[in-house]
Amino acid sequence: MKILILTSLAIVLLLIAYQDIKQRAIHVVLPVLLFAISLVYWSQSFIPLEQLLYSFGFVLLCLAAIVIQFSIKNRRLANPFNVSFGMGDVVFLIAVIPLFTFFQYLIFFVCGMLFSILAFGVSQLIKKNQLIPLAGYLSVFLILLGVYSFINPNYFFIF
Fold first, then answer.
1. How many domains, the chain?
2. Which terminus of the chain is less hemmed in, N or C, by CB atoms within 10 Å?
3. How far is the first Cα of the chain from the last one, in angstroms, to the nearest whole number?
4. Looking at the predicted structure, is the pLDDT value of residue 40 above 90?
């Protein structure tokens, strides 16, 4: 069962990565599928619901900080989710919450953002584009984490 879940997860992550990097947008079905697979994975794991709620609260806190930062910058209440931060990115960050404990999610979030900055920098050398395919880069990062966890079972991520 675990192999089927992880394979399904990898396929959806690959589709998200391909679509977001190529088109700078993802179809609404993909994050929904990702969330469904993540919930199935979570149901097979030992992660308490409390941990998921902490992670969700962290995402909400980050999103509130983004709104506040853009509002201060524009000197009025601003909605950065139409211009600077895609809704697909937000939904992706929520959809992967069931895969991690709170501590693991924090590590994934920070390291994933650093990975995304590096990947975007490299992609700028190849082709200039102002939009960052965050969900795509985070999908690639999550696939790499999964592969590393599979190769090294002692790694602290739970794959």
1. 1
2. N
3. 13
4. yes
